[in-house]
Amino acid sequence: MTDKVIEAINNGILTADNLTHETLRYDYRVDVYGNGPEVLGRGRGVLEDTDHLDQYLYSYGRMGNEQWDKPFEITMVDDDTTIIDYGCGQGLSFLNLVCRWGHDDDRTWQDYLKSVILIEPSIVALDRAQAIAQLKFPDATISTVNKKLEELDNNDLSFDENKVMIHIFSQVLDIPLDDEFDLLGFFETITSTVGTHYIHVVSHEVGGMNNQQNILKLYKHIVDKHVHVYDSTDEICFVLKTPPTEARKVIKTATNMALNTFNIPRNDKNYTAMFACIKTV
Ligand SMILES: C[S@@+](CC[C@H](N)C(=O)[O-])C[C@H]1O[C@@H](n2cnc3c(N)ncnc32)[C@H](O)[C@@H]1O
User: Fold this and answer.
1) In terms of residue numbers, what domain contains 229?
2) Whole-prediction pTM
3) Domain count of the chain?
4) Residue 31 C-alpha to ligand 1 middle, in angstroms?
5) How far is the CA of 46 from the centre of ligand 1 (A)?
């Protein structure tokens, strides 16, 4: 099945200038099934083909974009940057991030963004996201990992040192993850690389499912463990789990934290956004 978005990128209809989170949704949404939410597992299923991708844009694209309406400014980026998008889907969250924000200075994302790591269990979604990221950032290295969060290993999670890493979790931490998955251990691993880590989580409540628990758990963990005044006798250190195999201790400090909940009257949904900046030395 042909992917209309990839085709439009290849024949020049979609360009780095005209492709945004809004144009992707408006121009490529299709109500293929009539009962989209059921077919798509209420937006939480792993999408199987391009019809599912187009239906997702129709059924959930607007809500997906709305979740990015009121998060936080990312104006602090000041060095070579990697964006890691966990459960990136077809690239809507990535587009929301890079299209919504500029910088305090007159530089652009093109100046800062050197690499993008897209992680997603649906191969069709991943292919579309990769084409989108490469179109927007032709000079950046775009890597893909066709896995679930629970399947990632240390090789997937080793990043360049002394850089800025923006970790996006958009509508992913509210999905039921394997019971054995250690979310907090995973968080410690992804923030182990020396450098600056921005953690950006957006999500919404699915009626009666109490599905914001992982986000609140993560927020509480960061506050408990990483909001502290630096002190050389500080006990808060972690073994870097990623290669090189030589174990190494690092100290992490949360320099900025924010948690925001807001309601969108259009569909009376409650949204949650969390932001943290962790400096790892
Ligand atoms: C609601 S969509 C969000 C997509 C994208 N992050 C966005 O905001 O546009 C959820 C995505 O999570 C993926 N997903 C489902 N289970 C997952 C898991 N265990 N680990 C990582 N991603 C998962 C799905 O394939 C889907 O693409």
Assistant:
1) 69-280
2) 0.92
3) 1
4) 20
5) 7
